[in-house]
Records
---
Amino acid sequence: MADIDDKMEKFSELKADLSKYYKGEKYTWLQILLLEHLPVADITNKDFIAHNLFNKLEERGDIAPSKVHLLLDISKVNSELKKAENLIIQYIKNNEQSTDDYRQLSQYRTTLFKALREVDSEGFSAVIANYQLEHLKFDNIWKAVLHLEVKQLLVNKPDKIKKFARCFEPRAKDILLEIGVEFEGKSNKHKLDQSSSDCEDHPPQEKASQSQETRIKEYLKKKQQELYKDFNKLETAVLEDLDIEELFTDLKLVQSSKKENKEKAAKQNRSQHDQKEKIPKTLGETLKMIKDKNARKIIFTGKGGMGKTTLLRYITYNWATGKDKTFSDKIVFLVNIRDLQAGKKILDAIIINIDYLETFTIFMGTKNDEESVQLIKSFIINHGDEIILLLDGLDELNQGAGNPLVLFTNSDYKNTTIITSRPENTAKFIDKCDVHVEVNGFSETSIKNYINRYFANNNDLAERLFRKLFYNRHRQEHSVSELCSSPLLLLMICKVWEESGNLPDDLSDLFKELICCTLNQYLSKGNSDENKSKIASIERMPTNFKTAILALGQWIYEGLKTNKLIIDKYEFRNMFEDKSIVDLALKIGFVYKNPPLSKSDKNEMFAPPHKIPRW
């Protein structure tokens, strides 16, 4: 009985905490999202707040202490509700529930919400004018749409959606054209697509003559950009989430092109100064060189922890957001090579990461998802010059998986391929590539710039750290300054310096300090009820932390034998009887949550934040 009371109390606390996130405009979001779950009288009750709506959902049995997936689904519709989402996920984990099956909102509801996020002020004004709502004085699109839905002026029927879609620019309109099919069927989708063509920038005749290939390209490009537009964030366990722009890595160009490689002897006669001037130092300059020379086979090599994965994510993010125009007219696919299973090829990995097959099938009017897969594969193969493949981690290729080398050796492949790898076993790729770029991590100048940004409010602390790192480095075989070329190690070194104002000269002592610093960051977030005081030394580390670190070390040790450093939470938990130790090991800051390459991938994967350079 006490256990039941405890669960009810925690559930009540969850509802109360969530209510804080749904105020003002966000409360209207909640009203719209719950229109299919609660009576209109409850939705429009002026005396209600979010907590009242949650109570009504509980009364109807839609949510309960062991049933909160509807709340999770609602929180996932907008990144602004990330804190609410994290709160629910933590509640689910604490109650040993699964986060897999959370889809409780209809396709119509989520897609309508997605379209409304794209509506600008002109679209809002058009809705007010077309539906003659001027007298109601709505101050945003959400309140106007709530009114339209309550009055049944906007429902999931083609004629209603068509009228609504006429108010908007193409981006919001295209999203709207994806709905109206969940209950109405594909034929109505095509009727809607045709009947709304008069609202578009192109006349109906041009729309009708648009080639299938163009429609496929536009749809794939739009969906891939939506997937990658948030790829600038690196989710950490105990630190603030990092922006990859802050972990930008300088590059050293080793070989610019085949032609220039053949002229190497002639170049050796030039001065050292002239050669340095021709070596790109930034990613932007390197990408420009790749585009100018129409290079199609590019390999980035570098030691572990130098930022190769971050680089690919940065390229992907800049393409998705339009911040870089190098590949603006292409479609980008990012693939983790470690995900290639035995017998599978790169194309298979691309398809696995596509989580919008259902809407693609509707958009193209294919019979089923299988036909859609063949259509996408055919497009990628036949339109290689419009495809950019970013392949991360050649050194993590599984035995029996398709070797990406064929993309470098077979002239039939016209796509641009950028592949990353540690330097080992890359000779064949380097021999066949058009461009080879060595990723060296942070340069000395970059390290200083990063330190200055980190200690922006304390110039003296920044200057003393820089002197500490570089004053006596030539007297030591392996100095602390060498570690700073790894962006994430530099971040941790800054944390240690900020806490203590001191760095050990001995690398083993430094790593002990880094471990204590990481654990103290975890404790400072209020993550432990048992351990309140700071950990002064590694010898005084609490037993539960030691056990968790040893468990993590055991996984990494076994992974090194099979070249598998990524941690699958499900497999990791199965290694130990005490699941709480595993959960703690993944929380305390020594591994980072690996973001999935598709929204449908619910596996929880973690990776070490740094891989120590090999001297």
---
Amino acid sequence: MTRLFNDPKQFADDALAGMALAYPGYLQGVHGGVVRATESPRGSVSVVIGGGSGHYPAFAGWVGPGLAHGAVCGNVFASPSASQVCSVTRAADNGGGTLLMYGNYAGDVLHFGQAAERLRSEGLDVRTLAVSDDVASNTPENHLDRRGVTGDLVVFKVAGAAAERGDDLDRVERLALRANERTRSLGVAFHGCTLPGADEPLFTVPSGMMSVGLGVHGEPGVRDVPMGTAAEIADLLVEGVLAEEPRRGQDGYEGRAVVILNGLGTIKNEELFVVYRRVAQRLEDAGVTPVLPEVGEMMSSLDMAGLSLTVTFLDAELEALWSTPVDTIAFRRGAVQHRGRRDVVSREVVSDTVPEACDPSRELAQRIAGVLAVLKDTAVAAEPELGRMDAIAGDGDHGQGMSYGSTGAWRAATEALARTTAHHGTPPAVAPCPAVPAPARSSSTMRPADSLRSSAAPAPSSAGVTSSAGRASWPAEGTSSAGRASCPAGVTSPAGAAVDGRRRRHDAGSAGSTTTTGPRPERSTCGTGAAPQAVRESENRRSSTDTPAPPPATPARPPLSNMSTTLGRPTDIGTGPARNCGRSAGERAALSLC
């Protein structure tokens, strides 16, 4: 578990501040993250990366010559805000445009996209790219809809090296896209991570089992299988990523590849080396030559017990960019030319001008601030219950999201009123908004996932369609005013809280037991899974109003009978209910929002 912290809510900020103090020659802190402490050529492209904290060395540990110019760091497992992205991007700007890169998660896609639009309105040339290397999270045909995991490092390194050699923004972007298209990752986990201040892990894996394809924020894997030896686990991972190896001679690929064996938090390097011995043997048998392989913690998940394998199928140019010198606090190779110090001031765009306003307008502003105060108090009081409900169908972060969002809105309104009062005097008094009592904490009975799947009685539903297995399928109708599909009351989402015997900590321990989760520690994640292409700012500029095609039929898949079973194509990896394969982009978006 995470043992060393002061205030759990401040864990990410404290860690980032300590990192900048420990490495002043590499990093300097700005609002929302860190930027390089060294100079970059004027007119060159800036590479800004980011995501939630809790994944060291991602993301701040990758800032330095040869890699990133800045890193935006959100709360633990939570996307940074658009304001933070803007701040770091402005501080890292070299005048040649900026490529924003992040893992493909709904929160990151939303906030980095919002920041890009805002920065473009200020005259900056800003592009975005979501890394999507996790083969367990979607089919090969939907590679761009997959989650981003350890493959981040390869894609970021290629972009950083291209910017370092003086490529313009168009070329840096194209090379990063090519690296992402050629990168594949697969991981396994043996035990979940514990957030700062929490008493229990985000998830557990049954004793003697391991979870294949589990996400770095505790997103459900595709299947639990019996725990194997180091060699058997290596076989599983190699077969999973090589299932999508391109043909030799296709687009410059001749059997050379980046290979990263990554520890997720508690697996020691000696254990990883035991696994890598078998990985190297299997790659040699397949005729794949590793190029400057890396073994160690490259993208962790706090104290999660697990590991992942990443392979990037190289062409000559990608190999050259992967091999160039780099100098960051966590990733170093070769000799980087000495550079002078760059003192940066975070340039926040804040207007101190308070426009004139009539008394009715000021009264209305005061009432709005009162409404936001009620919303804030209600959301904070309901945070544990909202998180508990969200954990049944998703990742359990809805309570904290509502609490943080409403608190931020209330704080901004309060500060705006204070500035108005300072300029124009106290507005006329208005009656306070009535307080809204917090919803009562309900006690609900939940069955284990195995009972849910095997139960003959279908879940009650007025809008969904129940499958023959008794599990409610995604409803064909029911969208909100925002155009997002909603989960009707009583319908069990396919993205269940447990997969193949694994229990989320919000689940009951056995059939008929009652969940009585108390006040819940801080819980926030970057999303339950990959942000679908339809909801992100895609490179082909696909319209967000496009109607997704109906999902194709999903054929039955054979189970993994033992560790020696070949995974085959990633569409055969498993049958867990959280599987995104076969679902339309709109359905996957709705699943990530429920």
---
Amino acid sequence: MYLESLSLDNCWWDEMKSLCFPQLKALSISNFGGSVLITISGFRSLQQLQRLVIINCALLEEIVEDVKGDEHAEMDTQTIFGLEQLKSVFFSCLPNLKSFIHGSNYECYMPSLKEVEVRNCGLLSLFRGSISRNLQQLETLVVFNCRLLEGIVEDGRGEAINFCKLKILWLMHLSSLKSFYREKKEMHLGSLNNSGISCVQFQPLFDGMVAFPSLKYLEIKDLEITDIWGNHNYDDYKNNFVASSFCKLYMLEVNHCRKLESVIPHAMLHRLRNLERLDVSYCRGLRNAFPSCIARDLTHLRQLRFIRCTMMREIIRGSEREEEEEEIIVFPELKELELVDLKILTCFWCCLSGKSSTFTYKVQFPSLVNFKLNSCGKINIEAIELGSDDSNCTLRSLYIESDNQMQLPCKWQVHLYNLKTISLSGCWWHDVESLYFPKLQELEVKSSGRSALFTVSGFRSLLQLQTLKISECALLEEIVEDVRGDEHAGMDTKTIELFQLDSVIFKDLPNLRIFAHGANYQYYMPALKKVEVDNCGLPSLFTSPVFRNLHLETLVISNCRLLEGIINDGRGDETSDTDDKIFILCQLSSVTLNDLPNLRSFSCSVSYAFNMPKLEKIHVLGCPQLENFTCLKTCTELVSVCAERL
């Protein structure tokens, strides 16, 4: 047959001995019901094969029929043959597959193989040593959910193997995998020590028997390992390719390795200097990530993430205090730092000081762009420096959520000039006088224990603010601290101009009394489109001058028991001019008023007329005091009204 591409689903030939495909380049088999796919002679005919795909063959045990005993004695073929053009292999859902492309009486030579992906297969090992020694072109190796797999390479020669071009290695959901390299005598049972315990379980994932001089991306997920690298010194190896293992590693991800005790040991010193991304999550046995000597070595690290490592007390493991040469570690190129759900984390870098006490050292991130700290116990954030005194302001995003009330360090404020996003829960600055965020676009505050968040000058600095969200602040009385009397005499304006503010959301602020105005100031928000207020103590939302300059599209107010009107008619606002009593809300399309037991009208005392040409929906429920929208005329188009009564 002179086929170049063959794809078969749920079918195959009954007679395998005569199969011959000398021109075939791509072979794809799915839902085959047999235990053997092809004979050795048929497989040897695939000299032009470049891609092999086999999926969903539940009964398949061997790709190539393994001839044994007397049958093999009659064969006139060599037991080692080559598929010199094969570049890509993909096996998936072959639960009974016993071998890759080798058997007891044959082996396959694949010198051009670049990609291997094996998923949900019943293999005990993937490559024999003789095969793996010839994988000089292999660049990508992905092994996923092979629950019986004990080793990737099985060999008995005891010689180092070089995966010289491997760049991507993913090992995921391999519950039986103990080590990448396994000797034949270790397979299945493992050797026993004097206590009768298998020595294999103490073997690291990488033990120096396989070299990875070109590896850039390494992902390890859901492996029952205690050690990744071992304590051997790679520099002691005579083979140059072993000595250069992992030196080009760019990204390391370690997830769901529950028994892992350390991420990078001292033995890896000077080997991971090219590492830029380190991501560790759901490793519940992990107490720290690496020692201080490794931390100082990670000079090119750009992203560092630790998520839900529940036993982690510090990121950097310290030694005795007197052994540390310097009391600060700088990560000069780190851009992203994310620490999430590290419940007992106490510090970033701690050292023993005496028998029982600890000393916290400083860490510095002069290039940090995004910083996220979420539910991390009682971490000492005073020891975290966002930059040196002469460094640029690089931070763009600050996300901190604390389970306990926390005061943020005042020394951070000088490095927050270029912030665009702030999301803070359970924390704020004690000194609000120096807060200055001229480039901030999104501000979210939750569970703050303060009565006011900003001074007038600080809030006026928010010239780029677009979104304001404040929730669950039981003590908050006003957003902006209202300066009165002699203190106010030095102020040069009564207007806080927020030209870009587009959305305001307030929720669960029971003591909030003032929003868009104070005794000595009021807001100007010409871009405001959406206002949502839920369970707040406001008696009203806007003064008439503030409301007149709005371009609202959506207004939603719920569960505000003290609210009497949307507009507060302060003294001096009353007017007899008919034009001044008309509010033109050109963009307002939706109004929702829910559970407002004291709401009487849209305005508290003076009656205004409203022109709302785009109003489409009014939803009014639980407002028993509300008799009409306003005493004067309201002009709208056709409106959908949902109300108990008006």
---
Amino acid sequence: MTQLDLNLLVALDVLLEEQSVGGAARRLHLSEPAMSRTLGRIRRALGDPVLVRAGRRMVPTPHALAVRAEVSAVVERARALFAPGRDVDLRTVERTFTILGHDTVAAACGAALLRRAAAEAPGVRIRFLAESHVDVPFLREGTADLEVGVVDTVAPEVHVEALHEDRMVAVVRPGHPLFAAFGGGDDDPTYGSYYGESSSYGDSSFGGSYGDSPDVTDFLFPDVDRAGSLIGPLQAWLVIVVLALIAGCVAAQRGQFARAVGAELSPERFPDAAGDPAERAEGPRFQRLKERIRLEQHAPLVMYHEKRPFCGAGVAYETWVLAVELRPDETKKEQLPLNNRAVLERIRPLLEQLRLPSEFAGHTVRDRLRWLEIDECVFLPAEGLRRREEAPYHPGAFEEHRARAVEEGAEKRRHFLRIRVGGWEEELVVTVFVRVHTQGRMLMLEIAPHVLLPVREDFKDADRAAHNYRHNNVLGKAAWAVARVPGSAARSLATLGRGVGYVWKLLTGGYAGALPDGPALSVRELGSMDEGSTFQEMDAYRYLRSVQDRVAHGVLTALAESGYQTGEFVQKIVNISSGGVHVEGGVHGSTFAAGKYATASSGTAGAGVASQKGSGSNGNG
């Protein structure tokens, strides 16, 4: 007979209890590989796998389940066999005993037990451990030495002794479905013997509802004396009601938005500027503010802030400046006076020609250049004004500033020729500001193009979103509102924070007596998208290219007609897109081209104009 290792019984007992190699290794203070080798020895000795894997856990085999109780009994008898048989002197024992039980056990027996232990076993410490809602074998694991309560374990190593029996009684109201389900009735003698007549039952100090299983009315209308047991259900109902109210508020806000966009803010109510409801609004303060805004938006006199001179015009499109020396042309008999006004008068007719359609197209051409706008404006700094009303917006003041600014070439007061093209139904606006200045036999040309891109897609889709919401069914609206409930709190707090911040700025900013200032923000710019579509970019480039070509042609014409050389100007002009500008050679036999690898030559050999080449750096010589 093969010699048996009785230590395998202890390992087998722990493995069947833990049903895990790792747990058994921890109980026996072994490593997992050592425990795995021990399991292999047990399998060979029994001729059975003992533990097999089922999913992510180990389960005992039928044979292991059959011998489990016997293995535990043998191990327990072996432990008792080797236990010391002599009497124990309690006064010399030093140990901590852990008692597991309900709080009432410690309250009822704790004081007396501690007094007796202090008198008979002063070295013994007693620790009370509260019951856990999780079924954990504290006794078998050694966490507790004694458990007082409802012990339902059948393990052979756990000794169970009955201390007290208690009888559970369920109390329900008359006619409760639970009472009828168990065969009882209002006239049942058991019911009457326990609770007496219905009058005494109704006069009980516990109110008119009993039992551990409250019905729906107990949740909706709880008794004050029993409110503690219903805190959980009430909290759940409260959370549901709050979430429903939030979803209702979100849906109501969306509905109000849809109605406002579909009615008050519909395109039909704004056919043109005259049909704007603000034109018919009452209130002198509102009308005064409206007239002030309209005046400053459309007046040719622009009061600006030095950091934001072109606020509202859009994104700057590579502003460029060049200066050329006015050298007399030796082929001309004399030089005519050349001032800023003369140059502008040469540019303006060429720009106006952009409005004319092709002679073969008739009047069906819809190119937005046909509605090109040309005017003059004067920029004045807002610094120095004490009141907004002191700004010189009346026509006489503008004419005076224009006459002085067009020739003086000052830094703060600047005169510009403004060319504006509004494409895509005024969504894509291209504005070019042109300034010409002559000083010290030098001609300076400043061109500041700006592009105002279309409004963002979410603004354009407002009518579509409102229409879809109004025509959606109730289920769709409810689903939309419920999906936005989680983020509604953060959005509400953010909106509230912005409102509080705005009010705080109004109260503490001192705006009532603030000095006038130039515009800080443009609502139209704030609502613009970051980049336009391919077609819109193509149109913006075409508008800019056309305007810049005509401006350059006009300056060249003014130079040639006044008897000055044009070669330096041809070499220095730079297209804003770095592609090159070409002006036809119809000005007294001259021609030029600017840009990378651009060339220009005159077709008249006797004109005395040599062939010219653009420089390799965008023609900037």
